[in-house]
Amino acid sequence: MTLDDFRRAIAEPAIDFRPELRWWLAEGLHSDATLRREIEDAHRLGFGGMEFLAMDEGAIDHARYGWGSEEWVHDSQIVVEETTRRGMSVSFTSGTNWSNANLPTIDPDQQAAAQELDVVHETLSARQARSGPLPRIDLEAPIAETTLPGHRGTITQQHLVAVVAARVAGDGLLDAASVIDLTAEVDGEALEWTAPGGEGEWRLFAYWMHGTGQTASPSASVNYTVNYLDRDGVDAVIAYWDDVVLTPALRAEVARNPRAQMYMDSLELSTFGAGGMFWGFTVADEFRARRGYDIASWLPFLTRDAPFMAVSTVYHHEPADEADRVTVDKVRFDYVRTLTDLYIENMLRPFAAFLHEVGMTLRAEISYGLPFELTRPGPEVDGIETESLEFGAQIDAYRLMAGPAHLFGKQYSSETGATTRNHMLDHRFYDQIIATQLAAGITKTVLHGWASPAGAEGVTEWPGHEGMWPMFSERFDTRQPGSEFYPLWTAAIGRLQYALRRGRPRIDVGILRTDHFTDNLIGMALIGPNGERIPDEVAYGTMWMRDRENHWWQDLGMQDAGITYEFFDGSLLLRDDVSFDGDEVQPGGPGYRALVVYQSTLDADVAAHLLTWARRGLRLVIVDGARELESLMAGRHRTHELAASATPGLDGRDDELAAIMAELRRMPGVRVTAPSGVVAALDDLGAGGRARFVDDDPHVLTHLRQDGDLTVLYAYHFLYETAEPTTVGITLEGTGSTHRLDVWTGELRPHRGARRDGHRTVVELTLAPGEVAVVVLDRASDALDSAPPATTEVARAERWRLIVESWDAGEPEVLTEDRGLGYVSREVRPTTAVTRLDPGETELAPWSEIPAVGPDVSGVGEYTTTIFVPDVETGVRYVLDLGSTCGGLGSVRVGDGLARGFDTAHPVIDVSGDIRPGENAVTVRVGSSLNNRLRARGYYERVPDIGVQLTGEERTQNAVVREYGLVGPVLLLRED
């Protein structure tokens, strides 16, 4: 790609690069007119695609409108037709709602339904005999509450899997050496057995498999979660979609849409029994075949409680002897490794193959939430998705799955914008989430989300149908005052995503990391040490990564130096499609120039592979003493005192690993260090970073792409709640001309502040808190050194005429649809009444401080003034610095120029082409959130605070008055 090609394409980025939407439909209730209107609105506002799903709309007829009904199938056809007609992507979900793959054609007793391993036990004293039938699971007994979606349906069948006895050695402790597998002695379901003599009691465990019975709604009948581990589950999914959903008409539309996708969202699968283990009809046999030993005698150490996602796992029993704990940990690893194998082989791989046959691709939030290895499934899907909510929009969390995405050339996307603060937060908050994602190489933003204002009668109130409830969501739709400015905003995001999809990612370091219980509850860790509720915006803006605390790679030396890195499971290096060319790992992908090993366990085959590569020149850093997060809510971390000191599983290869690592540690291309010595080790190896900072800078994150002669540098001042800008020098490989992208206009101008340093180019950037910059180095053109510009104040605008368009509830519309099926569907569509408030001429201040506006108003403010410019110099850049818009999205128009958008963190607009000598009319329009109006209407008094609910306390949201509007100071500046 040439610079001219880049310039032409980025001026108006194609729809493929625009942000997309998660669309919550009110089941199949929406009329055809509503569906078409919503898609037209989304397209008009600049969104590139829609992922649609059914959400429970309360007291409507689910049999008529639920997922799988004729109405739902009909609506799906309309959605696909209308998105395809506009060139938008369209994504189905793998069942009703978002939480898992589920079907109406199975019941919990079938092999296609999700299964769990449950347990019941008897306690016997020494030498006590028992006989007769084994205790069965009481499937009608009350079950523990779950925080995950769905309920347990009716289960009638259970299958005995194993019977095991162990001596009790204390509270929660078992004597591992005493475990006896009694399964072979069971006759039918009866067992005669006498506990051995000696001290202590014995516990007899009977393990039964049965369906989880987890339901999913809304459905025209009852949907049950499918089996992710046995092939029966995916076969049932494929059969349903092939035979029922994908009608000839729908297949024809899918064939016309090159971006038709299936989306597998959160793995929110529940077990309800006492065992807490995901299971399947083939798990025990597959475990034996893959791991080389039986799992039965280890089951007492595998049962668990996991009240909310896999990270919350607490095992029921530990071995009493400390020496046995290492062995038990290895067995636990082998169990999860086996589950991951089956998830890949029996769900993702065959489902992706089917979808490809019908012209669709598979995008998925892989692994996290369940006890699956996080990154190994990455190669099996077409798109890897993460999310901002569960990971708290943390850079280290986004790095977790960046490794497989970049290694295998997968589209890396994020579900973006869900919080616990519905309608509360300013637009800047969401812009900062997107900016953080881009710094990790996420180049597809899927906003969470969109909902039609129209919904069912009796439950739909202004500002509109909630869709994803008022707890885990934000709305990026027409109910927002700021939606007027979405076309400018979506184009800006499109330019950023276009720039960061060019060519290949260039990542300096790959970090080998295996994770079976990923902490995906960071974004819900919002309770302080004294029980106080920490607002989402405070946690995101001032804690964790913005308080010098990254969660997994905790030493900040590489980040501060501008050395980029990401994570992946070491077994991915063993694949045939991963290569090392003597210098870089996967040169056609991320091109890692060094690898890091730090965890205390490492697979022996991976170590042997590293040894082979090290003999060919691989740069490897072995890090002892690294600390990483296990659970933020629990305050649990783990320190790896000695890297790669054991294999993770019970494979008997610890000695083999030790010999390999001893040789690796002696090799000339290998460095052994503590976390604080990694940067020095990389420098010593000649792998010090492709976009290295001249001086360490703790404020800036970068991401680098290379496309032929073009190097695209993305830089972001991520400490957006601080006050001071930072000036950073970034050294790029190669020389040439440098250009700065204005993401709001698409203009690519020469960058001022670049100099040659031998065969490198040093780019100097001054970034305000929260500001992003994109610089393009064109190595095909001559280098020109330039000094950074100096700015001079030309004029200051202090008095403004203000009109506020105040938004409130209007009269609702009732919409009806008669499709000739013997009934009429009715929707209610709330409307917005806009009242003009005229404070007259005013100094700039938040609306809450302006008496004619006040603290109860939300909407759009229009500010007008004139700026006198005595002379305009040709070839000089003029910018209008708005100071602050309280994080509100908006636009600026100078004279008869175009309306231009601006960065909500650093609202500075290039007005060089619009400014004229003399008086210049300036119009600034700024939107707000709906918080202040909804607060005044009592909306939040009915909205539960889910962040507090997770602690067991019931409390509604505490909404405070938010600052809105243009507050300045507004300066016209000249760059000299």
What does this structure look like?
The longest helix is centred in the middle third of the chain and has 36 residues, at 322-357. Helix 4 runs parallel beside helix 6 (248-256) and helix 5 runs parallel beside helix 8. The model has no long low-confidence stretch (mean pLDDT 97). This protein is 21% helix and 27% strand. It has an 8-stranded parallel β-barrel with strand order 1-2-3-14-19-20-21-22, surrounded by 5 helices. Strands 5, 7, 8, 9, 11, 15 and 18 form a 7-stranded mixed sheet that branches. The chain has a 6-stranded antiparallel sheet with strand order 23-32-33-39-35-36, with helices on one face. The protein is α/β, with parallel strands linked by helices and 976 residues long.
Mean pLDDT: 97
Query: What are the segments in which pLDDT stays under 50 over at least 5 consecutive residues?
Result: none
- Measured by DSSP, the beta-strand proportion falls in 25-35%
The strand line-up of the biggest sheet is 1-2-3-14-19-20-21-22
Give the class from helix and strand content and strand pairing.
alpha/beta
Main sheet characteristics: 8 strands, parallel, barrel
Quick description:
The protein has 976 residues and is α/β, with parallel strands linked by helices. Strands 1-2-3-14-19-20-21-22 form an 8-stranded parallel beta barrel, surrounded by 5 helices. Helix 10 links the parallel strand 21 (411-416) and strand 22.
